[in-house]
Batch of 2 targets.
Target 1
Amino acid sequence: MRISRRSLLKGAAAAGAAGAVTALAGKAEASEHEPKHRPDAVGMLYDSTLCVGCRACVTKCKEANQLPVDASAMQGTEKPVYDAPNDLNGQTKNIIKVFKDGERFAFMKQQCMHCVDPSCVSVCMMGALHKEGEGTRTIAGETKGTGIVAYDKATCVGCRYCQIACAFNVPKFEWLEPLPRIVKCELCRHRADKTKQGPLAVANPACCEVCPREAVIYGKREELLAIARRRLAADPKRYNGKIYGEKDGGGTQVLYLAAAGIGFHDLGLPDLPETSAASFSEHVSHTPYLHGITPLVLYGTAAFVIHRNKQKEETAERHEEGK
Ligand code: SF4
Ligand code: SF4
Ligand code: SF4
């Protein structure tokens, strides 16, 4: 699917909220909240230069997650018969988009980024969204576990704060279901193969399994980072020189490489500072006063931005789901 103006605007709006919070964070003192180091964190590396846009990963994701067909991209045709989602939505956890601007052209895979320090987890008062393995510490103080951002429908109250907090515009809501839930990639943790060792014992992402080009691969985040660095070093003219997700927004467990001449912003990924928005929000909630400014003022400003973005998002999503 072509990266639409609306999806870019939505990303920009979400990034705007994150940016507003982060701008305020710049005025805050150093936070005690630090993203935890998880040596067992797993993730994916998507190399846009290898992707041919076959969408096998989209189809396999649907199958593995038992998601219904979404023919929204076939609107206007007489019989929308096959799965052709336009964007992430309540029926789609993984999407391939295309960026095109004159001669510049690139594919883009979008799903949950499994942030190292996720805003969605930070705002989820019920703990319905949580980092897998959270709370289990090693003697060295490291947090064990995959770091997959998992969802528990049983404890979700449907407040949708996670939708507003996510700078990547990922969590979607099942508007048409009587008992709606949040829909987002959980790195196929339900497919974990307990008979295997290492990262494959904790997840088995369908999209990585089926990709004919190995454009998206699965593994430990630290190993994926090493692979990405090796690719950049081996063929610097092929790539734009950056690994998106290494530090952006506090780091993500899904990492991206893109071709020379293609910016990550072109692919719909927001420009984020290295400090996670979650670290700021938790700092504010734990700090009575910041430079004499009551946190209520900061909350008020953030709430205004969030409320404005939420209204835009709701209108757009209702429109999309009602198509
Ligand atoms: S299966 Fe692989 S090559 Fe095909 S669209 Fe997905 S990531 Fe790209
Ligand atoms: S991309 Fe969004 S939904 Fe996924 S972990 Fe990050 S904040 Fe949460
Ligand atoms: S890891 Fe699983 S749920 Fe996530 S995008 Fe890949 S196939 Fe879909």
Note: Helices lie at 5-25, 56-64, 119-123, 161-165, 206-210, 221-234, 277-286, 295-321.
Target 2
Amino acid sequence: MTDAPFRAEQLAKYHRREDFSCGVEVLDRYLKQQANQDLRRDLAVPYVLVEVATGHIAGYYTLSSFGIDPTSLPEGEARRIGRYALIPAIIIGRLARDLRYRGQGIGELLLVDALRRCWVLSKQMGAWAVVVDAKDDAARQFYERYGFLRTIDDADRLFLPLKTIERTLRQRLGDEVLAALVPGVTF
Ligand SMILES: CC(C)(COP(=O)(O)OP(=O)(O)OC[C@H]1O[C@@H](n2cnc3c(N)ncnc32)[C@H](O)[C@@H]1OP(=O)(O)O)[C@@H](O)C(=O)NCCC(=O)NCCS
């Protein structure tokens, strides 16, 4: 049992999406009109952060598999990885917090939940980094606070190596908690 005020779960039909409003029309419309369709078509898996007491959606994000063009990485990173046509990754396609939940650390909760989920996935399939496309300067600054780095050809496309995420999760959660997230996997 947990008494956490918010719960992250995969988007389902019973979630009340109609009144979600993050202030960015295209992100609101995506949740209301397209997210379920993308889920059905295996194009993206949307996750919602639900306020347990009210059932309101406080925020959401989507995950999809992705390939990074190695020429878009800074020289040192690309050299360390070696010659690959595409480098396997996971993209957080969209991430948004409802305006009613401003100033409550919901953006951080969403991002940390997404990164933890990406790390678990990366122990079951190859994925070198998590990628995000920031829609403006403010979004880019938000991601850079958490260590995301810029690609060299597109200032809005950022990446964070999964090894960095693993190191941070180890520090925050400890080895035992991490191991319980991926039973039977050595890391
Ligand atoms: C970006 C977004 C998710 C941040 O959500 P939030 O709930 O305000 O974020 P938090 O309250 O968890 O803030 C976490 C930290 O990031 C900082 N931060 C939040 N928004 C920021 C921004 N736009 N620029 C720089 N820093 C930001 C906060 O100050 C906080 O730092 P602190 O703990 O030192 O105070 C939210 O503003 C949003 O949904 N915006 C519209 C959609 C969007 O831009 N999505 C981004 C992907 S395109």
Note: The longest strand covers residues 57-68.
